[in-house]
Design a protein that fits this description.
Elements: H1 21-35, H2 46-55, H3 68-78, H4 83-107, H5 112-124, H6 126-131, H7 137-156, H8 163-177, H9 181-194, H10 204-226, H11 230-241, H12 249-259, H13 265-276, H14 284-299, H15 311-326, H16 332-357, H17 363-373, H18 390-393, H19 398-411, H20 414-417, E1 420-424, H21 427-436, E2 445-447, H22 452-455, E3 464-468, H23 472-476, E4 479-488, E5 499-507, H24 511-518
Parallel strand pairs: 1-2, 1-3
Antiparallel strand pairs: 3-5, 4-5
Helix pairs in contact: 1-4, 1-5, 2-3, 2-21, 4-5, 4-7, 4-15, 5-15, 5-16, 7-8, 8-10, 9-14, 13-14, 13-15, 19-21
């Protein structure tokens, strides 16, 4: 049974064209090929090391992330935990995002050219090239958001209203993937109320969908409640210490342009116009979703990339709008020439920035290329400083750090070594010790940062610690003696990791007693 939710009598829904399988397969293949080098390049990203530790402690929640990312990492561990086993998951997620973008263009009335333009646009976006090069929840976030948008378009097109239940399933999984899906849900609510979709509120299916989403999210909510809502406390800590770079409205908009690629700017701007006031205004609810998210994230001083999962729908709409405009060009040869020129511009401009967004070059060559283009490494966090963008810089130095710790550990007298643990200053160091340490005969890391703080010091009962990234002055009142026994430095790594390695003897008091003071979030 068809369910008519068209906007009004003057807004005619565009016909649903055929899906171009050739376009889809070509774009997906191109996306995957771009990420093949990244499966083997550089090293483990700091957060990847953390997620592997979370996978070793599967639970329904963590201090700073929702539980699904640990499930992704668990799959990688079952496959051996290698760099390719981690990153192939994100590579497939990126390919699925391209597929969804093409499907969105089709659902908005776009033919082969619109589908091509939308797919090319999402492929060249630097933020997605970077995010899909590592394992993170951000690689999967567009799948849940855009899956929901695809369902919303189907409902607008007169699809079965029971699709709201599937919407709820995807929204619930999205919440278990990343809590920022709450903002997406709020934006959808605004879009429903602000458009004739509000009629859905008088029917049961949208409410059933919301109930399904809540039911799927419930295990994480229960975990949060049982543990005192640590994620909220962590967010408050981030705000209190000014961890993130705060962008004013204009810089925030400029960052959107850069992260999605300047060549894409006309496409997604035209797409937003198409949805809100153009020929695609039957789907203006989609435009309202983006506008609501943009205002919300800008007001909250969110990281610029938090808006990235919303752009596939704008690129899809832009592809449709440009295709419609190009059909009015007289002469088939001229029309084809214009279309090839637009697509060629996206490919060419994308190729120029791709070496900065993919791990294709050596670190030295990437820095040189950055300088040649006059682009500084983007920063989303105040304290992260280094010659490379944080995403790349945080992949260097971890095996070397573990080797340096192993040399110190095995140089200790045997009786002292049996009483010695390794205290990591942050979850990256802890993850590195836990991943690379066993081959050097090292004990598991002890760490009081983020969710590691909830796991505690384990069964450590010793009185000596090799201590990473900590101030000697702070330790002097907690150790009988503090000695600098090493110095870690990696020219391509993040500056915060370059520093002394300390040896703390005669803990005062025991580590278990000190634990509440050692715990630190962000």
């Amino acid at each position: 049974m068809q369910y008519d939710t068209s906007i009004d009598k003057t807004d005619l829904l565009p016909p649903l064209p055929a899906l171009s399988n050739t376009v889809l397969f070509s774009l997906v293949a191109a996306k995957m090929l771009l990420h093949v080098p990244g499966l083997f390049r550089y090293g483990y990203f700091r957060d990847e090391l953390y997620f592997l530790d979370c996978a070793r402690h599967l639970d329904w929640g963590y201090v700073d992330c929702a539980p699904l990312v640990a499930a992704y990492a668990k799959i990688a561990l079952l496959l051996g935990g290698s760099l390719p086993s981690l990153r192939v998951l994100s590579m497939f997620a990126g390919a699925a995002m391209v597929t969804l973008t093409v499907l969105l263009a089709r659902q908005l009335g776009g033919g082969a050219f619109a589908q091509t333009l939308a797919g090319l646009g999402i492929i060249i976006a630097p933020v997605h090239l970077m995010v899909d090069s590592i394992l993170s929840m951000n690689a999967f976030e567009p799948l849940f958001w855009m899956g929901c948008v695809l369902i919303l378009i189907r409902i607008i097109r007169g699809g079965d209203p029971r699709l709201w239940i599937l919407f709820g399933v995807l929204a619930g999984l999205g919440l278990e993937n990343k809590h920022s899906t709450l903002f997406f849900g709020a934006a959808v609510a605004v879009a429903v109320v602000a458009t004739p979709l509000r009629r859905e509120l008088a029917r049961p299916w949208i409410w059933l969908g919301a109930a399904v989403a809540l039911a799927i999210f419930l295990p994480n909510l229960i975990w949060q409640w049982q543990n005192g809502f640590p994620t909220i406390e962590d967010l408050q800590s981030v705000r209190a210490i000014g961890k993130n770079v705060k962008l004013a409205p204009i810089p925030f908009l400029l960052q959107q342009m850069l992260m999605m690629h300047p060549g894409n700017l006309p496409v997604w701007l035209v797409g937003l116009w198409f949805l809100l006031v153009g020929h695609g205004r039957a789907f203006r609810a989609i435009g309202w979703i983006y506008a609501s998210l943009f205002v919300l994230f800008m007001v909250l001083h969110a990281k610029d990339y938090y808006l990235a999962p919303a752009y596939p729908m704008l690129l899809a709409a832009g592809g449709v709008a440009i295709e419609m405009w190009s059909t009015r060009i007289s002469g088939s040869c001229a029309r084809v020439a214009v279309r090839y020129s637009i697509a060629g511009w996206l490919v060419l401009s994308g190729a120029i920035l791709a070496p900065l967004a993919l791990p294709l070059l050596s670190p030295a060559d990437q820095v040189a290329y950055q300088h040649k283009l006059g682009l500084d490494p983007p920063r989303s966090e105040v304290a992260h400083v280094g010659p490379l963008p944080q995403l790349w810089g945080d992949q260097f130095g971890w095996p070397e750090l573990v080797e340096e710790v192993a040399e110190i550990y095995w140089a200790l007298p045997e009786d002292e070594r049996s009483r010695t643990g390794i205290f990591a200053g942050n979850y990256g160091e802890a993850g590195a010790i836990n991943l690379f340490g066993p081959q050097h005969g090292l004990p598991p890391a002890i760490c009081a940062h983020q969710t590691h703080s909830m796991w505690g010091p384990g069964d450590f009962r010793g009185d000596t610690l090799i201590w990473l990234q900590w101030e000697p002055e702070w330790l002097e009142g907690r150790c009988g003696s503090v000695e600098v026994v090493g110095e870690h430095h990696n020219r391509w790594g993040m500056a915060e990791e370059n520093g002394p390695i300390l040896l703390c003897r005669d803990l005062l008091p025991s580590l278990a007693e000190q634990w509440p003071e050692l715990r630190h979030w962000n």
